[in-house]
Design brief:
homodimer, mainly alpha, Arc Repressor Mutant, subunit A, Tetracycline Repressor, domain 2, 2 domains, 66% helix, elongated, DNA-binding
DNA sequence: AACATATGTTAGCAATGGTAACATAGTTAG
DNA sequence: CTAACTATGTTACCATTGCTAACATATGTT
């Protein structure tokens, strides 16, 4: 079945062109941005003809969507991992998720932008939205825990949203090099902690 | 001199091609996004050959930068206008600026994205940063007023930054259609007011 | 009137996303 | 084992795009 086989180039068939194209695309996108990225480049890097990708992706957008989806998944995993190093359901664990969010954006700015630019993904919006919801759920559960709520109710949702907004904005400002427009050194870690404290209602 | 003349097509010379190209580009960008925008389209819309723009703009990027710059300017003007309808130096006037910010993003999402996507503007980053600083100053002055600070000192800067971050994040989530990921109806106006209240220190 | 400058045109280039027709490898049926 | 089928690759080609070069026309200055 679809087990991850060893990549055996027969010279004609490639082995795992789909995976290799995704890898190549991710690399190129982080180097030159999603706009500067071309299918042709990815093909050159993977060592195949420019027509080959269309056996695996219906279009350039389709490939980009795949990368966005993967990114959204990894973001959720990162957040959970970072939070799990703190006492659960605390300001600290929630702030840790925020740090993971911004850290992801700074580590892979172009992928991050891709993950959230709806305009690009005509076709697979619903699929991406689903994956996004999954990663957002990681935050929701942490906030529910903090609030002592038994499940994801409206209170949890209303509390979580401004937290998301905050780190999302911070991420974009950071990757777009707007932090020095503020004319004073912004410490990102501090910003996240302070905003998290202010936006969370104090809880017993 | 460079006064805005009536646009007289002689049939060959155009009158104000530069201005018309900017207008055409703005229209096309809001219709199809900055990626879907092509120089050729703008030329067709302006009724000139595809080589004509290069007498007025060194490249496609240069034209886009011009539009970004104009957008940043208009954003600052919008913010000032909306704030001036409130009592100055209050939570209300600051929230009004936030509303103007998000409203701009929703009204011209593609231009908004362009305004903040550093990656695109290789050449004119410094110029754009300068204009951006100008518009940011509108918020800074309002916050200084609120805090009773005589000038833009570090306290003002530290207070203003999370406010910017918040509305910036909200703007992006809104234009990227991510508000329904939260599974509950987000009232944008409310969100802004609540976040502004929480992020501003209470002041006598 | 003559010249310099600004601004437009046509012709053409290389790169790109995508398709069609063909080639080859791996898989399954008889 | 071979034949047929399917999956996956290739070459050839197309329209579009950003941009440049060489040429044409208008405007303004002297």
């Amino acid at each position: 079945m679809a087990k991850t086989e060893i990549h055996k180039k027969t010279g004609y068939h490639h082995g795992d062109l789909r995976g290799e194209l995704i890898a190549a695309a991710r690399q190129l996108i982080e180097e030159h941005g999603p706009d500067g990225f071309s299918m042709s480049d990815a093909c050159r890097l993977a060592g195949v003809s420019t027509a080959a990708p269309y056996r695996h992706f219906s279009s350039k957008q389709d490939l980009l969507s795949e990368i966005a989806k993967d990114g959204l998944n990894r973001l959720g995993i990162d957040m959970e991992a970072r939070a799990s190093k703190q006492a659960r359901g605390t300001v600290q664990s929630i702030a840790a998720m925020g740090r993971a969010y911004v850290a992801f954006a700074r580590r892979e700015p172009h992928t991050f932008r891709l993950m959230f630019s709806t305009m690009s993904h005509h076709d697979r919006i619903d699929e991406l939205k689903q994956v996004g919801r999954g990663s957002y759920g990681v935050l929701l559960r942490e906030v529910a825990n903090y609030l002592g709520e038994p499940d994801i109710n409206e209170t949890v949702l209303r509390t979580s949203f401004p937290l998301w907004t905050q780190v999302h904005g911070l991420s974009f400002l950071a990757i777009d090099g707007k932090l020095d427009v503020t004319e004073f050194p912004v410490d990102i870690e501090d910003s996240i902690l302070i905003a998290t404290e202010r936006l969370l209602p104090s809880v017993p």
